[in-house]
Write a sequence for this structure.
C-alpha cells in the first residue's frame, strides 16, 4: 500500500517548544484489558503516557478483529486503538511469566485491567503488597459484585442493557444498537478519567487505590433523557419512559428532514427561534402561520406548538438543496453573521 | 447534513484545515492516514505511532523507590480523589455540564458561572434537564456583558485550577480569560475550550448540538434499521463523550502542572471527538474505500453472527443475543431448539444466511421472557441481555439494585428527587456527596467573600450595580 500524495496535513493549532513535555510524560500505565479498557490506554498514550499493553502469548485478540488493511491481515481496529502503546506478550498461566507481570505492575503508576471479578490474575491486595502507590482501575461489564457480575457483555448487549437501544430506532423498528463500539468508547473515556483521578490520589497521599468501574453503570449515566424523564415524569415529555421516535429529539425540537435533493438535514427549532429562525422563514416566504403575530406572539407560543413549527420546517427544507441549506443556516445563525465576516467555504 | 462516511470525509473543509488526519507507517501495510487526537493540548508531542511489540525486559522501568515524603495538608478521602481542585465552569446545556458533574462528583469544587439572561429553558435550575447535570456545583451569577463582571471572572480564574467553557471561538480571548491572557499571572491554570468545531478552521463559528455532530461524522447514517438512514442515535451521545473528554483534559492539565508547573490550553472540538469515535470506519474508508450502509443490529464488520435484537413475549419486549464462533453457536442453537448445521453450520454460513438465521431465532424468542432467557443463555456462556427501558433500570435491574446505584438529592424547588450515583467505587466506596441543584447566583456571596476575599461593601456595590445577576 503506497503513500497518499494528497495527504491533508494542515497546520498545528499550537506551537510546542522543544523543551515542552507532553501532558502525561513519564506516567507508567499497564493496560491488561479488552474492549472496555483499550481506548483508555490509547487516550493516555496520545497524551504522552508510557502505556504497556499486555496480551496473551498467541498475540493481541484485537489483531484478529476485522476490518483489515486491504489483504494484509493487519487489523484496522488494533492499529487505531493501540496507537502510541508498547505491547508485550505474557502467558499468565505460566507462573514465571506471571511474576514478570507482577514485577511490571510493581514499577507502574497505573494499572487498567478487566480481569473476571471471580478469578482475577492478581487480587487488589496482592498488588498493593508489591506497589503501595498503585492506581488500580478495574473496568468490568458489571462491576466487582452483584448477581450479574459474571455476565458476558459485548457492545450490542451493553447498549441493550443501559437504555440506549430502547430509545434508538423508530417506533416500528426493533430497538437499535448504536453503530460501532460506542459503549466501549464511553466506558474507555470514564476509565481514562478514573486512572488519572486515582493517580492524583496516590501521588498526594502516598497510598494506592482500587477503583471498581462498572461499565453498565457508566453507560446508564450517559443516556441523556432516559433517567431525566423517569425521575421527572411531569415534563413536556409526558411519560416517564422515553421511547424511540426516529430522529426526533426528546425535546421535539430537532429532527432530520429530507431536502429536495434527497439528503437528510438535521433541523433544529431551538436556536434563536424568534430572533433568527422565524425572521429568516418570513424572508423566504415560508413562515406560514408563524408569521401571524396573533397566533404566535412569542417564543412560548411557538414552543407550545412545536409540532406545527416542525411541520413548517419540514416543508421548507423540502424546497432546498441539502448542503446549501446547511451552509446558509450556519451563516444565518453564526455569531459573526451580523458583522458580515462569515467565511464562505 | 446526514452524511455517510465517504461524505463525512470528503465534504468537510474543517478536517483538512485543522490537519486532523495524520500519516503513519503501519508495519506490514505502509504509509496510511489515521484519525488524529481526540482533543488537542498546548503540549502535544507527535501524534501516536502504531503500537510496537517489545520483550518484557525492554520495558525497562526502574522501580520508583520509596515514596517521596508526602505530607498531605489534610486527609483526602479515597472516594473524593479530586478534593482541593477548583473548576470555573462557564459551560451550558449538556456536554460541558456533564464533564464538570463528573469532576464535582469526584470531589472537585465546581463554580458554575451563569447569568439570569442565559438561564432560560433547559439552562434554568427550574428545568429537570439542568437539575440532572448540575448537581454538586456552586452557582455564581455574573452578567458578563459588564466589564465589572469580567473583572470578577478574572479574579475567579486566577483562583482556579481549571477553566472550562463552550462559548463561540474567540469570546474567551475578548474577555481576557484564555490561557495566554492568564498565564503570566497564573502559569498553572488549564483552560479547556470545548467548542463544537474547535478554535480554528472555516467551520470554527458553526453552532452545533450533539445531533449535528452525529449527523456530520456518519454516526447518524449508520445507526439505523436496514433501509433507513436518518434515525440516528436516540440521545445526545457525543455530548456525554465530550464531557468525559473535558474531564480527562482537566486531569491532564493537573498532571502537566505537576511535572512542569504549567497548565495547558486545550482545544476540544466536539466534532473531532465525533470523528474519533468513528475511527475504524474512517480508516476503513481511507484505505479500503469501504462506505458502509446501515445494517440494523448486525455487527458492523460481521465478526459476530447472529448479532441481533429479537422480540420476546409481551408488548415491545426484546432480547439482545450475540454469538461468536461455532461452539457458542451450537450452545445457543441447542438451547433454542434450532438445527445448528446446514445453512447455519459455519460463521460464513450464518453471515450469508442472516435473514433466515434471525427469523429462526426470533421464532423461538417470541415466547420467552427477556430476563429469564438472557439469564439462561448467560449461564451457558452466551452473550445475551434484556433490552431495558428507564422503568426497568430503576425497578427491575437486579444488578443496579444490588450495587445500590440509585440515590436521591434535595433542592428547595424540587424536594427530594432521584439520581443516578457515580458509576465507580473507590476502595469499595462510591463518591458520597450529591448536593441538589442550586438556584442561579445562590452562592455568589459566599464565593466572592471566601474564595476572592471581597468585603461586604465591595460585594454590595457590585450587586447594586447589577453586575451579579
Amino acid at each position: 500500500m503506497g503513500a497518499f500524495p494528497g495527504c491533508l496535513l494542515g497546520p498545528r493549532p499550537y506551537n510546542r517548544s522543544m523543551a515542552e513535555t507532553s501532558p502525561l510524560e513519564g506516567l507508567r500505565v499497564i493496560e491488561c484489558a479488552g474492549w472496555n479498557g483499550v481506548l483508555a490506554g490509547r487516550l493516555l498514550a496520545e497524551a504522552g503516557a508510557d502505556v504497556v499493553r499486555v496480551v496473551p502469548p498467541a498475540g493481541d485478540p484485537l489483531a484478529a478483529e476485522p476490518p483489515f488493511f486491504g489483504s494484509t491481515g493487519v487489523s484496522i481496529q488494533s492499529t487505531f486503538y493501540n496507537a502510541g502503546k508498547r505491547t508485550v506478550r505474557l502467558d499468565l498461566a505460566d507462573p514465571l511469566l506471571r511474576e514478570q507481570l507482577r514485577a511490571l505492575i510493581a514499577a507502574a503508576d497505573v494499572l487498567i485491567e478487566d480481569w473476571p471479578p471471580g478469578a482475577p490474575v492478581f487480587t487488589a491486595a496482592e498488588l498493593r503488597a508489591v506497589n503501595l502507590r498503585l492506581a488500580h482501575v478495574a473496568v468490568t461489564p458489571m462491576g466487582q459484585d452483584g448477581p450479574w457480575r459474571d455476565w458476558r457483555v459485548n457492545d450490542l448487549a451493553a447498549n441493550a442493557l443501559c437504555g440506549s437501544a430502547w430509545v434508538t430506532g423508530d417506533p416500528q423498528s426493533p430497538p437499535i444498537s448504536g453503530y460501532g463500539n460506542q459503549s466501549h468508547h464511553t466506558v474507555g473515556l470514564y476509565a481514562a478519567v478514573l486512572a488519572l483521578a486515582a493517580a492524583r490520589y496516590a501521588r498526594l497521599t502516598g497510598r494506592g487505590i482500587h477503583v471498581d468501574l462498572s461499565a453498565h453503570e457508566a453507560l446508564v449515566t450517559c443516556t441523556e433523557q432516559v433517567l431525566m424523564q423517569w425521575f421527572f415524569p411531569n415534563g413536556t415529555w409526558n411519560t416517564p419512559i422515553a421511547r424511540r421516535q426516529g430522529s426526533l429529539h426528546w425535546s421535539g425540537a430537532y429532527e432530520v428532514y429530507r431536502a429536495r435533493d434527497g439528503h437528510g438535514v438535521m433541523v433544529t427549532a431551538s436556536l434563536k427561534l424568534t430572533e433568527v429562525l422565524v425572521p429568516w422563514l418570513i424572508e423566504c416566504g415560508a413562515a406560514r402561520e408563524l408569521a401571524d403575530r396573533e397566533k404566535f406572539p412569542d417564543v412560548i407560543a411557538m414552543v407550545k406548538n412545536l409540532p406545527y413549527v416542525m411541520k413548517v420546517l419540514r416543508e421548507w427544507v423540502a424546497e432546498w438543496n441539502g448542503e446549501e441549506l446547511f451552509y446558509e443556516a450556519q451563516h444565518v445563525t453564526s455569531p459573526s453573521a451580523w458583522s458580515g465576516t462569515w467565511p464562505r467555504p | 447534513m446526514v452524511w455517510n462516511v465517504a461524505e463525512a470525509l470528503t465534504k468537510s473543509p474543517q478536517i483538512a484545515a485543522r490537519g486532523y488526519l495524520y500519516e503513519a507507517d503501519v508495519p506490514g501495510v505502509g504509509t496510511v492516514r489515521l484519525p488524529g487526537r481526540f482533543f488537542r493540548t498546548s503540549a502535544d508531542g507527535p501524534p501516536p505511532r502504531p503500537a510496537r511489540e517489545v520483550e518484557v525486559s525492554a520495558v525497562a522501568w526502574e522501580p520508583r523507590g520509596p515514596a517521596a515524603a508526602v505530607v498531605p495538608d489534610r486527609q483526602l478521602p479515597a472516594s473524593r480523589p479530586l478534593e482541593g481542585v477548583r473548576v470555573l465552569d462557564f459551560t451550558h446545556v449538556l456536554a460541558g455540564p456533564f464533564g464538570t458533574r463528573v469532576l464535582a462528583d469526584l470531589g472537585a469544587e465546581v463554580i458554575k458561572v451563569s447569568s439570569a439572561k442565559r438561564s432560560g429553558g433547559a439552562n434554568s435550575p427550574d428545568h429537570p434537564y439542568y437539575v440532572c447535570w448540575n448537581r454538586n456545583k456552586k452557582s455564581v451569577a455574573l452578567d458578563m456583558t459588564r466589564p465589572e463582571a469580567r473583572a470578577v471572572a478574572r479574579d475567579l480564574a486566577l483562583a482556579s485550577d481549571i477553566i472550562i467553557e463552550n462559548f463561540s471561538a474567540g469570546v474567551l480571548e475578548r474577555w481576557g480569560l484564555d490561557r495566554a491572557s492568564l498565564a503570566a499571572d497564573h502559569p498553572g491554570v488549564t483552560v479547556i475550550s470545548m467548542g463544537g468545531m474547535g478554535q480554528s478552521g472555516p467551520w470554527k463559528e458553526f453552532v452545533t448540538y450533539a445531533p449535528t455532530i452525529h449527523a456530520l461524522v456518519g454516526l447518524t447514517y449508520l445507526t439505523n434499521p436496514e433501509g433507513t438512514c436518518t434515525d440516528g442515535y436516540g440521545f445526545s451521545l457525543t455530548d456525554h463523550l465530550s464531557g468525559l473528554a473535558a474531564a480527562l483534559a482537566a486531569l491532564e492539565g493537573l498532571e502537566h502542572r505537576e511535572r512542569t508547573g504549567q497548565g495547558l490550553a486545550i482545544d476540544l472540538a466536539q466534532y473531532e471527538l465525533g470523528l474519533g469515535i468513528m475511527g475504524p470506519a474512517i480508516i476503513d474508508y481511507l484505505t479500503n474505500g469501504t462506505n458502509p450502509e446501515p445494517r440494523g443490529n448486525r455487527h458492523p464488520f460481521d465478526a459476530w453472527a447472529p448479532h441481533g435484537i429479537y422480540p420476546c413475549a409481551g408488548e415491545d419486549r426484546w432480547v439482545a443475543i450475540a454469538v461468536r464462533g461455532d461452539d457458542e453457536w451450537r450452545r445457543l442453537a441447542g438451547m433454542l431448539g434450532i438445527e445448528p448445521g446446514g445453512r447455519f453450520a459455519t460463521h460464513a454460513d450464518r453471515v450469508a444466511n442472516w435473514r433466515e438465521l434471525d427469523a429462526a431465532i426470533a421464532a423461538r424468542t417470541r415466547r420467552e421472557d427477556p430476563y429469564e432467557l438472557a439469564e439462561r443463555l448467560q449461564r451457558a456462556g452466551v452473550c445475551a441481555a434484556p433490552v431495558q427501558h428507564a422503568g426497568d433500570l430503576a425497578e427491575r435491574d437486579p444488578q443496579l439494585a444490588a450495587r445500590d446505584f440509585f440515590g436521591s438529592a434535595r433542592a428547595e424547588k424540587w424536594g427530594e428527587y432521584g439520581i443516578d450515583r457515580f458509576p465507580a467505587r473507590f476502595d469499595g466506596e462510591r463518591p458520597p456527596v450529591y448536593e441538589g441543584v442550586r438556584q442561579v447566583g445562590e452562592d455568589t456571596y459566599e464565593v466572592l467573600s471566601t474564595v476572592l476575599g471581597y468585603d461586604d461593601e465591595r460585594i454590595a456595590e457590585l450587586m447594586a450595580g447589577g453586575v451579579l445577576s
